[in-house]
Prior knowledge:
By secondary structure, the protein is α/β, with parallel strands linked by helices. The longest helix is centred in the C-terminal third of the chain and has 35 residues, at 170-204.
Amino acid sequence: MNLGYARGNRLNQQFDFLEEYQVDEIFSDDNRSYEVFQDPESDYQRLLDYTEPGDCLVIAFLEVISRDYQILLKFFDELEELGLEVIVLTSPELTLVEWREVLLWIDKNDRLLHPRLIKLKLKQEKSRNKDTYSVFSKDKDAKQLYRDVMWQLFGKRKLRVIAEQKGVPIETIYRIQQELKRVKLAGILAMCFFLAIATLKITENFSDNLWIQIVVCVNTTIVILYNTLADDE
């Protein structure tokens, strides 16, 4: 079972990430401080009580837990004792063992901070994949894979499923999804533009009043946009 947890800043963004990943349940301690993890009445403790070995804790950012790598090490130790795994949606996909290795290495190099290391690694990975997997890619296979991912996203398949099937980092799948959303929005706006013109022409046959024509045109456009975007959500 995948259980989402949100806390701290950018809560709306965290909820968007977790809902996009389609976790089984979301727990949240809102904007409470790090001390919340010691509170037996907190949602975090309720989440731990709810879990079973083999479950996975899903968070949007490492900072949801802490910016202190010592605290993160204790956090990963606690998850390991409970037999849980962790997924950080905005970071490279690592196991608990790999996360611990990264943080222990940082612990021995006091001049580095874990957010800088993780963000740098993620940024490099995104930059490389962005050049490789795109509609303008020079690699024929990569371009075909990009189109396949687009079609699967259009069919509303889960990001993680596509990433595992295609062997592509989930960060890349998420980027392609955002590109697809922009393409769909552009198509919707273009459709509304042409329908608005058609509506205006049709209205001219029934009334010569310019204001009536404008009102009908605007209302039609709003109805089309509302229904299309609502269905898209």
